[in-house]
Amino acid sequence: MELPDGVAVRQPLTMGRSTEGRTRLSERRKYRSWTAKQKIEIVLGGLRGDRSVKEVCREHEISETLYYSWREKLLEGGREALAGKEERVGERELRRKVRELERALGRKTYELEIAGEALRGWE
């Protein structure tokens, strides 16, 4: 098809990189998964202090937010594992209280069944 003289044809604007390898928004994003051992090693790499957290994150291609989330979980797990005897005693006390309440509930349920049978007997 010929264009008359003086008519300009607009080409689509492209900026930056080529659009050939562009992904569509509807395509599902692939997420990497990390084993617990890998996460621990990455967090320890940042805790050692020989490199900055930013460098560790860049090396493993993760966000700093993800790194700090893993670090907090690791430290929380350590706190629980190193909990003193007092905390374990508190947990034991809570379990004893639950057993006591379950027994009380069982007694009340039994009493209601007996009362129900007694009322049916009067009818």
Description:
This protein has 123 residues and is mainly alpha-helical. The chain has one domain (36-122). Helix content is 62%, strand content 0%. Helix 1 crosses helix 3. The longest helix is centred in the last third of the chain and has 38 residues, at 85-122. The protein starts with 35 loop residues before the first helix and ends with a helix.
H/E order of the elements? HHHH
Radius of gyration over C-alpha positions, nearest whole angstrom: 33 Å
β-sheet strand percentage: under 5%
Structural class: mainly alpha
Number of domains: 1
First-to-last CA distance: 101 Å
The low-confidence parts are none
Let me know the average pLDDT. 82
The gross shape turns out to be elongated
Q: Please outline the major beta sheet.
A: none
